[in-house]
């Protein structure tokens, strides 16, 4: 699990202009979910968040927004925030600047279309796999995007980690202002269903609030 913490530690040093953690002297945790919306797992996540009166930020893949517009709209209706996660979940390190930006624009168009909006007031972006090149960062920031990374990543996507590994990774590394990554995807669904209720319960009992970025 150490490699998960190492990613954000090194990333903060290499890319300090990206958002890794939010300053807070209050008990607040910022939950984020990548790769949705998904027909099977996202509604479950939304139901659970409602039970805990928790808000989150969903970094959506544009293709999935187009596939499941009703679920996407449910995210918005329930008061959560939306971020751009490219249209086809592209890995920035292996994609040309032109193709990458075009793909981000496609995702933005899908988000606008299905949120019935003409502009995006809070332009949040998270690079798939956390992999993005400096020139891609510069271009996106010039377009007004705040690039959101993370302070804690659960590892729910990693087949080599158990649900208990993922749970311990979250509770051992979170603090006030932490941005935590989960995935509302089929790949992560099994572990997510085990750990997310326990994480929410653990921090709620400690007096934390869960807010959207």
What does this structure look like?
The protein has 213 residues and is an alpha/beta fold. It contains eight helices and eight strands, in the order H-E-H-E-H-H-E-H-E-H-E-E-H-E-H-E. Strands 1, 2, 3, 6, 7 and 8 form a six-stranded parallel beta sheet that branches. Helix 7 (163-173) crosses helix 8 (186-205). The longest helix is centred in the C-terminal third of the chain and has 20 residues, at 186-205. It is globular, with a radius of gyration of 16 Å. It starts with a helix and ends with a strand. The model has no long low-confidence stretch (mean pLDDT 94).
Describe the structure using short key phrases.
two-stranded parallel sheet; six-stranded parallel beta sheet; alpha/beta; 213 residues
Element-by-element helix/strand order: HEHEHHEHEHEEHEHE
Q: Span from first to last CA?
A: 26 Å
% residues in beta strands: 5-15%
Which segments are poorly predicted (pLDDT under 50) over 5 or more consecutive residues?
Answer: none
The main sheet comes to: 6 strands, parallel
**Helical content class:** 40-55%
Number of strands: 8
Instruction: Look at the helices and sheets and give the structural class.
Output: alpha/beta
Q: Choose one word for the global shape.
A: globular
The gyration radius over C-alpha positions equals 16 Å
